[in-house]
Structures are given as C-alpha cells and as structure tokens.
C-alpha cells in the first residue's frame, strides 16, 4: 500500500500494529543519488565506510519499502507499505544526481506524487523541539485567553507602535474600514480581505485592532495551507472560541504527526529490535541513519555502535548469497532480480505467501522493479527461499551456527579482502603487503606494467593517473620478493603501500571531495583523482553498468588507454549489473547493484 | 509548444527560424530552488550580486519559457516554446529546495516528464570538446576499417592479453561457442547473448574475436539506450558495413545535438542581440549564465561585462513598473499576475495578440501560472501594454529618452537606495552614513531601541542577533548628529557603518554560508546569522510570504520578540507576494516575487 500525506494519519495506527505483530521485515529504499566512491580492491571496511560517507553528498531517500512478514504454522502472511518521503520545506536543501532521477522516472517512479504528497521527517533532536514548541504555543494561547480582559496594557503598546498610514494607502484603508462598519451592522457571516501586499496586510491588521470587540479575524488559507487573505467574522462567543480552540488543537496535533512523519514509523521499527532483511543494504542503512537519526559519525566504530543500537538484527541477502557455503555455488549473479530468477526454480522452492489484503498486494507476476515496496517484497521472498534451501527456520536463526557469520554483516562491493561490515564485531584486519605504489613514464601502457610484473603472477592495476598506479598481487606469497627482485628501469619507482601511506603524512579523505592531500604532491594528485572516478577506466572496461555505458559512451574512445589498460591479466570482475560469486579473488568493482 | 527530447531534433530548425524572425522575446524560468539571501536595505547592487551568487547554491533551471513576438503593421504575432531542461547524467549533481519542488508540483509542473525527457545542455567549453571528440571518434573508426586487413598486429596483442577462462565459466562459454558455430551454418539472421554479468561479457567478447571473419557483433540496446546484451549477426559485406556506418554517423550527430541540447537555443538567442523582456529577472540571468555559459564571476564588473556581451538588450518589467514616472502611480503591486490584472483594465489596453498556430497557443483565459512558457507569454503581454500606455513603439525604444533609464536595468528587491543593476553603466554609489551598528543589553526590546533613537525620526532596524543590530535612519539629514547626541546608556554602543566595516578586517561573505567572520567575535556572529534568515523575524512579522507561513508557523511564537521587534516604527514594506511601489523608502524586503 502506498503511504503519502494523503493517508498517513489514517493509516498510522495500522502501520504501528503491523510492526508490532511482524516476525521480520524486508526493506528497500530509493535515493536521489548514489555514492560515486572510488573504492580500491584492497580497501578495508573502514576505508569503504569513510569513502562512502564522504561521497554520498546530500542525497536523500525518497521512497522506502517496508514489507512485514508474519510466519504462521500453515502460511506466511505479508503486508507491504511503500512510503513516499519528501521534505517540502524551505530549509530542506538536498542534492540529486541527474542520472538517478532519470533512471527512477524511466522506471515509473511518480515524482509528481512524491513532491506533492511525500511524507516529511525530522531527526531526533528536532522532534523533541517540535513537541515542546507546540505545547508552549498552546499554553501561550490558553494564557492569552485568560488574561485578555484583565490586561489591556499590551494593546496600548501595540497601538503606540502603529505605522502611520501613508497617503497612497488611505483610499484602500478607508474602503476596508467602511466595509467592516457595514459588515458589523449586517447579517453577513463573513468576508475576506484579499489581494493585499504584505505592507497593506500589515495596515489592515492595525485597523482590525480597533474592532476587536466587534469582530474576530483569522488568516484565510486554501487547501494547500496557503494564505489567501484575512477572514473577517462577527465576534465569536467564549463558547465558540472554545470549540474553535479545540478544533485548532486537534489540527495542530495532526500537523505535528505529519511533520514528524516517517520518523514515527522508523522509531517503531527500531524499537521493535526485530530482524530486518535488506539487499546490498550498505547505502540503505547509511542514508537511514543520516536522514532520520543523526549525522553519520566520522568514527567508524561509533557508526557501528549506533547502527547496532538502532537496528540490532540485520541480514543482507547479497552477503548471504555471496558467502554462505551452501548458497555460494548456486548464484552466478547476486543482483536481486537474478537471485529471484534463481530461487524461482529447482533446487530452490519459492515460499507461498499470502498478502493480508488486496491493498498490500504485490505479485512477482507483475514486477515493479525499482519501486521500493516491490523490491522489499522481492527481498523478503528471496530471503525465505534461501532459508528454506539451507533448512533453517527464520525463528531459529539465532540458535543455529549456520547463520553465525551471516547475521549483522553488510555486504561491501568491489573489495577483495574483507567484503563486509560486521556490525557487532571487529572485522579481521588484513595486511596490504601485496599492494604497491608505482610511478612510471607517461608513455607506458598496461602491457609495460604487466611485463614489469610478469614474474609475480596475476596482478591487478588500479590506475591513479597516467604516471602512477597501485599494483595488487593476487598471489600474496610473491609479495616479499617484489621490491628486491623487480630490478631497475629508468623512470620506474616502487614502494610498498605502507610506505606510500606513511609518506602521505597528510593523507586523508577530505569531506565529500575524495581528495588526497600531501605537502609534496597535493596538486598533481588532486588533479587526477577525478578521472579515476568518472572515466570508464575505473570501471574496468566492459564492466561499467548499463547506465554508465549510456551516459559515458562518448568518453569511451577518448580514454582508450586508461580503459583497456585497467583490465588486469588476472581474472577480474567488475560487475555492477551482476557479480561473480565463485571466487574471492574476483570480487572487484561491484557496484551498488540493486538499482 | 512544449519542447523535450522527444521533439527537439524535429523542432530545432523551427526554433532557430523563430529566433531569427522575432522582434523581441519574453523569457521566464523555473528553478529547483531560490536564493535565501540575507539582503540588508542599505546593500549596494554589488553587495546584492555577491550575496545572491553566494547563496544560489547548485540550484538549476528546469524549465524555460521563450516567447517570440513579431510586430506587424496590423497585428502582433507570437510563438511560445516551453523547454523542459534536465541534465540526466551521472556527473550532473545539483541541489534542490524542498519547498520549491513542492510548490511547482502543486502548480502542475510535470516532474516525471522533466526527468525522462528534459533537454540536456553543456557549457561552452564542454561543447567544443564534445564536437572534437566525435570527429576524432569517427576518424578513428574510418582509419580502423581501412587498416583492418593490412594489420593483424593489434589482434595478436589482444590475444596475448586474453583472460584465461575460469573453470566455473567453462560451461557457459562452451555453450556460447556451440551456439555461434550453429548460427554460422544456419539461416538465422541474428541472435542475442543475454543475462551475462560484466566478467562473463568480457569472456564472450574474447571468444568473438576468433570468429571475426564469420560474424559481426554489436552491443544490443533497448529504446532507452540501455545495453541488453550482445547482438550477433552474420559477417556484413563491406557495402553493408558502409551503410551501417553512415546510419551510425547520422545517429551520433543527432545524439550530439541532443547532448548540446538547450545550449543551441541559447546561443542563437544570444547571437541575435535582440531585446529580451523578463520580469524580476535577476535570478533568471544569474542562473542562465551559470548553468549554460560559465561560472558566475566573483568580480561584479566582470559579471556585468559578460552579461552585457551575452544578452546586450534587456528590459525588466518589474523595474519598468516600479520606476517609470508614468507607470509607477498605476501599480500597487508589481507581482506579474497583479500587473496583468492592472493592465487588463482602463487606463491600459491589452494588446491583441495572435498565436502563430494552435501549437503555440497560451491564453490568459486559461492561466497556467508558474509554467515558464505561460509566465513568459504574460510578461510579453504586460510589456506591450506598458509600452502602449507610455506611447512608445517597441521598435523605437533605443531612440526615445523615455526608456533611457529602463533599458538594461535589472530590478533588485529589498534594497533601499539603488534598486537595480545597471548592466551597461556604473550605478551611483550611495554613502551609508545614515546606517549604524549598535550593540545593547540582551534584555532590550524593539521599543527600547525606538526610544533611544526617537529624536532622529523613522528608523529601520535590521536585527543581527539579540544584542546587536543595524539601524538605518530614514532621514539622512539626521545622520551627522547621531553619534554626538545619542548619549550614554549602560550596555549600549554605537559606531557608524563605515567604522563597523573597517573593524571587521576579515569581514567577508563566505561561499554559500553567508557567514561573517571576524577575529574578535566570529563565533557569536556565526551563531546568529542563521536565525535572521530563517526566522519570521527577518521577514518582518506579517510579511513573510504565504509559502513561508505554512512551513514556519511553528516557529512564530517562539521568536515573538524577534518577529515583532523587527517592525520598524517607520513605514516598512516587506513584501514578497506583492510590493509597494509608491515610495522609495518602502522598498524593503522584496522577495523573488514572480514565483
């Protein structure tokens, strides 16, 4: 079911009940942009986290699918909510990536609905303030009513501050005065003062003060809450004022719920501490925390701690398929849709799932790929099928060693060593002594580098620019020999990765610029960090995603050298549309594939 | 007529012809966000330019209306194009303001159309590169064909770089080999290798090299230019290859036009050097230059020079109505729709305008406010009516002194002295000796300040924070006396604005943060610069725009002091939905009103 501002208030109790009753959830989200991070195959989980948080800019989540599953003895029930999320106020400034919005629009995403009826949200600190403010505002009004007749002092001060009416506005103001005088004597119920500019409105409010015993006034708004003028009515009785005030409070409470919006749902989800399934969920969790809870910590361990506290029980189906010994051999590709295709036939069994009502119905017969609700639903189905295959009951995950190394691990693409973030434990640290930093003459091609390293077996080249690169040996045993035995070639230098890092005393990733700085060569390295990210070379030639191929076709030929030379002589896999999962060595250059 | 990628190629010749034939144009644009600048009433045009350029963030234009008018002896003809503009590639990262997108969506803007079919654009430098790249790419292909048979050296190198086929891919690759062998012997016209991940595609391309005398292959894309697989066909003859190459070149040339996109239109518009009418057009020209030509210069004079070179003949209808002696008394409000309402009745005459065909038809009977095309059309109509009223022929503007001080002046809202940018001349510089910087006890209210200044006549207060403000005297003649005669009050200090600026040695506006820094009190001033902009106080109480009232209602009570105390005892006008135009003194706090 779609949830927007149009039905949020009405459906909120049901959403809350659903979260309460569910056994587990599957989620998915759609963003205004995706991280364009420059991940190296030898990056650690912490490196990936820092690079990603620095590169997700101010992109936001605009749709969240939440699929709640209930496991009963004889059947599995599910309800899917598809939330449109959009902060429609002036202070909400966010970034978008042209390609992402285009991609979503081409896949049927309704942006008109999003911008008109998307749910608001607030972070934890702002929510508290909002609640407090409303309480004070209502208290202030209550006090005002009580003290109105007793104290006319304030009124005197107001009168003293009055703006003299300029000559050119006299006619307008006199007209309005006359209109009010006639209204007071008449049986008319109300009238509206319209078409005034701000200054004129101010003058009108001034004269209204002189009529405060005869008329009541309020600002008149249209259905979009836009001010259209000043509504003038006969003076209301105390009882009428009371009824009006109660209505007003009810409206304000509803408005508060709408302002806190989707955050109310996430809070319940977090408090439930129940299992949440996602597919390739790194960006999902990063955006969730950043947008709805608090800024992403610059400290990796702090991030893990906060994530664990917020969502203490996660499973990433991409990591599950890629890693679990029984599942790994079954999947050529772990793109969500490909997983579904695989689990739809033997040796897998698709679970039989009943939607709780027609409103919540998605069907894999009518795929709505890239709609968050549908993708969440698909993720849940795949997860159930995987669990069925490895013969583990979802309710007994915590009791079985089979899932030990799957729970709370979030998949990391493109990296070679530790390809997950372990939310509840420290990841193993892996030495990088098989990685080298080299510089060479600009005339060198890929084949020159391969020639230079041929005695050490397969290598992977990460080009920095036309005269430097990182080299990663696939056979770590050869690493020790390299520096000693590689021999001298004019214009060629080599250092270990550790030495390289030490040299870069100021080596750091600067906010969302992904810039290396060093006192010695900051300029030249800054100059080239961009091409690595945006050129097809960094995507390993043929492996750029379909979307990239489209937008970057014109660049392909221009960077032939970079593009071709990036293909290492080893088996590499730069799969963003699909990944090889058979061999750890090949897990290079995965992209965020559930797009 | 709507112009999107769907009809751009087809309509481009007609657009170009229309620009060539027109006598003048009216334009309007819609943005993803508007400047949230903190303009002071005593700011100079240069101050406003710098503050605005620093605060427009990376907002972009997403729709441009271009209405071309032809003046004939007996009638006025017009054609309106409504261009959807959207950069759909990965590298295009831009910002949006939630409120702006919501506002446009509520006014019927079709974002789904925008994101799917919006026109691309490139700046001048990129266009040159694109053209060069395509030429080289085509030349490269031509050379390749010529050298194919002569030189198999490259092929040998390619083979040497081949990746060994891993065991787990053998079955797939053998299957594809077999499929190709059968295809070669068959009458089938083609087949497609699908569902491969990136690594697998790479392996497939490798084996295809062995079949290069028997088959031709190309990447197979869907209607959205998305790769779907590898299309295999029987080896094409040289003639077929030639035909195919010609088709390919034609497609590439079309693609190039689509990539340069809307920039092609703007270039023609600029080259035409014809009169362009806009309404409140500061943001329009700033965004136009920034987005389609080059970054906005940090030097004000450089900006004016470039703007004058690019669009040498501009009239801003807002400035026209606000300033022209015959028009000024006629308008209470210079919001575009209000101007139209005024010129729709006596003493004005609406021009009779014929659309050149149904396709270009807008009608004021069916208003489409906030659609750029319609607003451009409306601007053109208002302009013609204004010209009729002051009895100047549009073709003779340059010859009449009546328009001397109107042409090439762009309206500036909210400022008190020079309320325009003069594109072709230096603006007069105005001394600020009637402006003072004061500090005072935090307990002070507005009335304390008024009391302190009462002997100097009307003042305007620009609050900086709860203990400091700028005071502007409306009667400049009183300025000299202030420092000498204001007298001592504990906790109160006063300096002239000039002294204040000198003290702030590091006084500067920092990029889009609008922050003052000073070595002495940077912290406290930074801390308060935000509330001034976003609190209703800065909008002068009742004068915040309708849109603001909605989103900021909850803040109103909390900042009562700030809000009320901001209302100077003088006549102020903080008009964003409409402006007072009768008195220069009142031109404070105008907002971008043609929204």
From TrEMBL, chains A, B:
It comes from the Eukaryota. Residues 546-561 have a biased composition (Basic and acidic residues). SUPFAM superfamilies: R3H domain (SSF82708), Ribonuclease H-like (SSF53098), RNA-binding domain, RBD (SSF54928). Its EC number is 3.1.13.4. PROSITE patterns: R3H. Pfam families: CAF1, RNA_bind. InterPro entries: CAF1_poly(A)_ribonucleases, Nucleotide-bd_a/b_plait_sf, PolyA-riboNase_RNA-binding, R3H_dom, R3H_dom_sf, RBD_domain_sf, RNase_CAF1, RNaseH-like_sf. GO terms for cellular component: cytoplasm; nucleus. Residues 535-545, 562-572 have a biased composition (Polar residues). One of its GO terms (molecular function) is metal ion binding. One of its GO terms (biological process) is nuclear-transcribed mRNA poly(A) tail shortening. It catalyses: Exonucleolytic cleavage of poly(A) to 5'-AMP. Keywords: Exonuclease, Hydrolase, Nuclease. Residues 170-236 form the R3H domain. Belongs to the CAF1 family. This is Poly(A)-specific ribonuclease PARN.
